[in-house]
Amino acid sequence: MKKEYSVAVTLTTDTEEGDVRIxxxxxxxxxxxxxxxxxxxxxxxxxxxIRLVGWLFRRSERAIRSQIARCAHWWGSxxxxxxxxxxxxxxxxxxxxxxCLIIDRSCVVIxxxxxxxxxxxxxxxxxxxxxxxxxxxxxxxxxKAPVLGWIAERIGNAFVSRGKNxxxxxxxxxxxxxxxxxxxxxxxxxxxxxxxxxxxxKKYRHVLPPKKTGFNLxxxxxxxxxxVSVTLQWNPPVADGTRGKTMFQAxxxxxxxxxxxxxxxxPHEVRSDEEWLERDWEAKDRILSPP
Length: 291
Hints:
Structural class: alpha/beta
Distance between the termini: 43 Å
Number of helices: 8
Helix content: 40-55%
Strand content: 15-25%
Order of helices and strands: HHEEHEHEHEHEEHH
Radius of gyration: 21 Å
């Protein structure tokens, strides 16, 4: 009897696990379908229409860029909202600082980077904070990405390569000039790539050392811009080097919770401390440390 009971339990457990895997696979397919549908069939035509109407009515390039940026971030937030429903993500937000500092102003938005979904998270967040008129620092190969690359190039994003490439500084300066002209914000991941435990150091156990060049250049170019520092805290964690690397690994996020710890910091606090970015990253490392 005990043996039969044990087998029955095992079969039930396997069935339940199989059902979960089926639901996860369905969620993956639906998430990809939502992304393709929204950006391929909704966002893309709308962006083209904005461009065409702007040309016909002789609107300024600044106005066209800003409208396209807001449109893309709005649709991006729709993608993430849909993913939350499909993948059963639980998202919580904690904000510290004066929100008045980011109303109708340029901001420098920075965040730690652990997975491919982080981009969608930040897109949704900046739209929620009223910072839809934002630009991104992106990897150079993404300039040729279908739809997204075209949109990114038209709104003036900065495309940089890894390593100390002099062209990166030129790209950042070009982007900064557009930010000033458009009264826009900038979004960047100072780590430069996704964190994996194998790259942890003695100083930082849960984040990579931040690269200061881009951050400092944008802060200098936008002296009145507040800094919005975001800490993405996945639970259970996804930063193990194998999970959440591409949109095809959406199952890695199924049923997870995400807490966004947001700090809004006044411009003078950042500019007066040369080590501010390192201190902020140390704070992120503490937040991400297990209790």
